[in-house]
Every structure is written in C-alpha cells, then in structure tokens.
Amino acid sequence: MFQWIGIDHVQIAVPAGCEEEARRFYGEILRMSELPKPAVLSHRGGVWFQCGHRQLHIGVQEDFHPATKAHPAFEVSDLNRLREQLSRHGVTMKEDVPLPGILRVHVNDPFGNRLEFVETRKG
Q1: Helix (H, G, I), strand (E, B) or coil at 21
Q2: How far is CA 62 from the centre of its chain?
Q3: Could you give the dihedral angle defined by the CA atoms of residues 66, 76, 19 and 56, in that order, rounded to the nearest 10 degrees?
Q4: What are the tens digits of pLDDT across the range 50-94?
Q5: What is residue 104's predicted lDDT score, i.e. its pLDDT?
Q6: What's the confidence (pLDDT) of residue 10?
Q7: Which of 50, 63, 60 is nearest to 9 (CA)?
Q8: What is the mean pLDDT of the chain?
Q9: How far apart are CA 66 and CA 78, in angstroms?
Q10: What was the pLDDT predicted at 123?
Q11: Buried b vs exposed e over 51-85: b needs ≥16 C-beta within 10 Å?
C-alpha cells in the first residue's frame, strides 16, 4: 500500500518567451532561488525555482491562458515584509478576508496567474 508523502512541486503555466520576466518576478522580486532544469527538459523552455522545501516550475504552454481562479498558496514567515517587497516593485495586491489564524493576500504574476501568500498566526 502506498502512502501520500506530500507535494513535490507546483507548476504554473506561462506563455512562450517568458523566462526573463519569470526570473525577474519569481527570482528577484519574490526572492526564490532558481534551480537548474534537467538537460532533458531544457528544450521545453520555462524556469524552475526553489520555494521552501518544494519547487515551483514555470512551464511554457502554447495556448496559454492565465489561471485567474485556480492558484497556489505560498506560506511565508512575515507577510508584512513580503507586502513591503511587493509594494516597492509596484506589484498590485488584493487583500482578502483573514481566515482564523491565517493572514493572506493575492497578487497576479506578470502573466496574469493568481497567486496567494499566507502567514499562519499562532495563538
């Protein structure tokens, strides 16, 4: 019998030719570390990043349409600092109703994909 261990990575679709803009947004603004893609996949385009203990794969999709409802939620340790970082770079944020013990904010990446950032509050 197999057991679920967790999520290995999340993939976000983007249009062709997006790599530099993805590096700027996910690498420079969000401060995720870029990972080398395996050589066997490099011809597909896109770029991979480390996000905590998981990976974020930015993958090229030929008939790209941004994900405006479905989205990954990234947990951060200091949501206010992330808000400041996003604000410094002119990223528009949409506050959302806090859930019990969770603060959250939504943004769109440069390609129109919805992203959520959450901070869990203890106590």
Answers
A1: helix
A2: 20
A3: -80
A4: 999 999 999 999 999 999 999 999 999 999 999 999 999 999 999
A5: 95
A6: 97
A7: 50
A8: 95
A9: 27
A10: 63
A11: beeebbbbbbbeebeebeeebbebebeebeebbee
Residue 61 identity? Q
Reported confidence tier of residue 96, pLDDT bands at 50, 70, 90: confident
Amino acid at 111: F
- What is the C-alpha separation between 102 and 112, in angstroms, rounded? 24
- Please say whether the beta carbons of 14 and 59 come within 8 A: yes
E strand or H helix at 81: helix 79-88
Q: Give the pair of three-digit tokens for residue 46.
A: 């896109």
Tokens found for residue 10: 């999340």
